[in-house]
Design a protein that fits this description.
This protein is an all-beta fold. About 0% of the residues lie in helices and about 55% in strands. It has a 4-stranded antiparallel beta sheet with strand order 1-28-27-26, with no helix packed on it. Strands 2-3-4-5 form a 4-stranded antiparallel beta sheet, with no helix packed on it. A 4-stranded antiparallel beta sheet has the order 6-7-8-9, with no helix packed on it.
Length: about 325
């Protein structure tokens, strides 16, 4: 059997762009092995000050706690039911975990990892976001809803949707939430002060819109679809699609780097698409960096200037987190 190389960087001939001393927008700086972790890996969250990464190992029914300074796993929260979304709130020292199989949100102490509270939502609890201004937690779940939780984990209300919500983003300087609804082939716009949908935006024929990122300063929403594999750029004032570019296939996470004006999209096809924002209306894929087939979830931390890519177990090679540094 041919041995797999640990990483191949594939730079597509997409034109020249200056990055200072390097032409590689992401540089692999370390690989953190996760022996014993089986199956699909889902989303991540970070404790920037404590230098810990929390990884939802869905197929393993665990959340893996990784010490980034030491470069190793330091704890495994077991007994979960298909964990998907994770959210760490440093001010509270609390970790929230959404489970697909049992439809719960579990709250854990951020130091001891002891379970503090379990909140039942019904089914398929998924992505989690935090509204720092209102001090509320939003969780996508079930066949169509955003649950609203207080910081103590108690549920306060629910915003109904007509399909299961995938990735969603909250405005920091406004009241809207943008929600991907791939089963309804649209993006729902919610006014969270009203607690209801105020608009629905189409994706112009592109289907399977799972990941999403927001550039609030320039009023741009980034959505990556899987059929066909495309990055869509929408104007958040009108909902109009202003740009569409080919992207890596089977994408499950996308992030906007406001410092370098870049978009990072990780896909199970086995690559990371890196796009450069030229201005608010124009974008260019500057690199497509080969990774490993099936590695589709990632997490970008502006604090550490790093992109963390989750790699599931492949044959005899253990699961791992690949840590990429951003390069100018």
């Amino acid at each position: 059997m041919r041995r797999r190389l640990p990483l191949v960087l594939l730079l597509l001939p997409l034109g020249s762009l200056a990055y200072g001393q390097s032409n590689v927008p992401l540089r692999l700086k370390s690989t953190i092995l996760l022996p014993g972790v089986q199956g699909r890996i889902d989303h991540m969250s970070i404790d920037a000050q404590g230098e810990r990464l929390f990884l939802a190992a869905l197929g393993n029914n665990t959340v893996e706690v990784i010490d980034l300074k030491q470069g190793k796993r330091v704890y495994s929260i077991a007994g979960l039911h298909e964990p998907q979304g994770v959210l760490y709130l440093p001010a509270l020292k609390r970790l929230f975990v959404a489970g697909a199989d049992d439809g719960t949100v579990r709250m854990f102490d951020g130091s001891s990892y002891a379970e503090v509270r379990t909140t039942a939502l019904g089914s398929d609890a998924d992505n989690i976001r935090y509204d720092a201004e209102r001090r509320l937690i939003y969780v996508g779940y079930g066949s169509g809803g955003l649950a609203i939780l207080r910081e103590d984990g108690t549920k306060t209300s629910n915003i109904p949707l007509d399909a299961h919500p995938e990735s969603f983003q909250l405005e920091k300087n406004g009241s809207r939430i943008f929600v991907n609804l791939p089963d309804s082939r649209k993006i729902a716009v919610i006014d969270r002060t009203k607690g209801s949908v105020i608009a629905n935006w189409g994706t112009e024929g592109a289907l399977a819109n799972f990941p999403m990122a927001l550039d609030e300063a320039d009023h741009r929403l980034f959505v990556v679809c899987r059929a066909p594999a495309q990055l869509l750029v929408l104007d958040t004032d009108s909902g109009r699609v202003i740009a569409r570019l080919p992207a890596v296939g089977d994408c499950d996470d996308v992030f906007y780097d406001s410092t370098l004006k870049r978009i990072y999209a990780s896909g199970g096809q086995g690559a990371i698409s890196v796009f450069q924002k030229l201005d608010a209306d124009h974008y260019k894929e500057i690199a497509r960096m080969a990774t490993i087939k099936g590695a589709r979830t990632s997490f970008f931390s502006p604090d550490s200037r790093s992109l963390y890519l989750a790699v599931r177990r492949q044959d005899s090679e253990p699961a791992a987190i690949r840590v990429y540094a951003t390069e100018r």
